[in-house]
Design brief:
This protein is of the alpha/beta class. Helices cover 45% and strands 15% of the residues. It has a 6-stranded mixed sheet with strand order 1-2-3-5-7-10, with helices on both faces. α4 packs across α5 and α8 runs antiparallel to α9. The longest helix is centred in the last third of the chain and has 17 residues. It starts with 5 loop residues before the first strand and ends in a 14-residue tail after the last helix.
Length: 271
């Protein structure tokens, strides 16, 4: 599949999806959205892909939504074009990113605003540039925050901090983002992608695909469950199942033998 607004590559179990409009600071278009959803779905479906890394081309991660109109197209022509591209790029699954079996890391190599911030909140880990500018700028445009940001951000950084950055729409840097808990790490911009790939390769080489998929699913499900006893019971059942699974048996043998694990289970079929 060829794409216009993103590019994709993969090696050694790690896929990289790059938002690829560097001259426009990777501003998010309807086409980019369709291509991104399609590419992530394709990589998630592949058993050999253990982690997906998302980054931006050039100096920015994503400047937010591109509000410019398609040149030379009427509203009717644009709607027809969008429908045609959507049909061609129909994703394999309608599941949101947090329900996919593959961990997704946002390598936020430069500045981001708007959807450039709310999209990474739907992903699993975030590595950010220390010196870059980031902001949930919606209220400074008279817009309401979107993509579930008012649900997820308080859970990530706490209600008081979420109120601050969402209501004011102010900018902050990657160091601030790490201190708040939005970023897992903040590193110099030139090191962001390398650090994300290092983390991705660690997961790909040293963890079981099914156990990672189940762990990811449990974390997000438990964010919605206030019944601690139910969570503990569900966790215990899944733990018992995992220890008896082929990967669980292999993991114990690998540990005792002081060797890397040889994982054989499917992140889809065995999940």
């Amino acid at each position: 599949m060829s794409y216009e607004h993103i590019k994709v590559e993969d090696a050694d179990g790690v896929a990289v999806v790059t938002l690829n409009r560097p001259e426009q600071m990777n501003a998010y278009t309807w086409r980019m959205g369709l291509e991104f959803r399609h590419a992530v779905g394709e990589f998630d479906a592949r058993e050999d892909i253990r982690v997906i890394v998302v980054t931006g081309a050039g100096r920015a991660f994503c400047a937010g939504a591109d509000l410019t109109r398609e040149p030379g197209l009427s509203d009717e022509q644009l709607a027809a074009l969008q429908a045609e591209v959507a049909q061609r790029l129909k994703p394999r699954t309608d599941e949101p990113y947090w329900r996919l079996a593959t961990p997704i890391i946002a390598a936020m190599n430069g500045s981001a605003a708007g959807v450039g911030m709310t999209l990474p909140m739907q992903l699993d880990l975030r590595i950010m540039a220390e010196e870059a500018k980031y902001g949930f700028v919606f209220n400074r445009r008279g817009f309401v925050p979107e993509l579930g940001s008012t649900w997820m951000l308080p859970r990530l950084i706490g209600t008081a901090k979420a109120m601050d950055v969402l209501l004011t729409g102010r900018y902050f840097n990657g160091v601030d983002a790490a201190a708040m808990g939005f970023a897992n790490e903040a590193v110099p911009a030139a090191q962001v992608l390398d650090r994300a790939l290092e983390l991705a390769q660690d997961i790909a080489r040293n963890t079981g695909a099914v156990s990672v998929a189940v762990t990811k699913r449990m974390i997000y499900r438990n964010l919605e469950d206030n019944d601690r006893d139910a969570v503990v019971a569900r966790e215990a059942e899944l733990f018992r199942w995992s220890t008896r699974s082929p990967d669980g048996v292999e993991g114990a043998k690998a540990f005792m033998g002081k060797r890397p694990g040889e994982w054989t289970m499917s992140k889809h079929a065995d999940f």
